Inverse folding.
């Protein structure tokens, strides 16, 4: 894992100056957070972490927002298993596995036996993951024939517009991230604008914008 940068980036200096000019009291924690987010925009080694969402550790397993591959597997197979809830947890834990589409009920039972938590604890962790997906939920783009695109269609669109490969878009990033990038691109194209930035760069800037907005709102609420 990359070390946290200690020096203040030029972008962070500008953002902090703008907040202070707006009358917002900036705390030490704000400075550390904004600086880290600005370095994520400038450092490619940090950007892709944002696209996977925030994982939750529970019972010895790490749960992540669903990838395209995990979602398709669950919709086609997992939701029909006897313990569909555990199948969803399995999809969250194994969404980046290269062969998740071949998983079966035996894999689900083995996953469940390895967990060291109670079912309620697992549900709470799953709820946090689902909340992330719902926060990023955006209606998927439609084909010209008005059909919802498949996993293959979405990954092909992402490769064509943003680069990368099938494994990256189907197993390494969350559905919310894919939908968010496509939504941003669609809006930009509707406005006649294409900026040429990578989706990771866009996501990093979006996270920074949310952080700055929250800090500014906190400053206004305290007035």
């Amino acid at each position: 894992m990359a070390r946290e940068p200690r020096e203040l980036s030029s972008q962070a200096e500008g953002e902090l100056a703008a907040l202070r000019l707006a009358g917002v009291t900036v705390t030490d924690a704000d400075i550390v957070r904004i600086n880290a987010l600005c370095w994520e925009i400038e450092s490619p080694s940090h950007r892709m972490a944002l696209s996977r969402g925030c994982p939750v550790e529970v019972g010895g397993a790490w749960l992540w927002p669903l990838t395209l591959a995990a979602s398709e597997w669950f919709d086609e197979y997992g939701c029909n298993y006897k313990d569909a809830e555990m199948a969803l947890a399995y999809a969250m834990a194994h969404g980046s596995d290269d062969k998740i589409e071949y998983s079966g009920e035996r894999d689900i039972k083995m996953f469940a036996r390895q967990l060291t938590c109670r079912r309620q604890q697992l549900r709470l962790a799953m709820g946090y993951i689902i909340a992330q997906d719902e926060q990023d939920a955006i209606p998927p783009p439609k084909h010209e024939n008005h059909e919802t695109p498949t996993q293959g269609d979405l990954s092909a669109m992402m490769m064509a517009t943003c680069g990368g490969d099938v494994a990256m878009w189907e197993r390494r990033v969350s559905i919310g991230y894919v939908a968010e990038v496509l939504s941003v691109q669609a809006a930009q194209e509707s406005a006649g604008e294409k900026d040429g930035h990578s989706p990771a760069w866009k996501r990093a800037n979006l996270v920074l914008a949310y952080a700055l907005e929250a800090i500014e709102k906190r400053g206004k609420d305290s007035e």
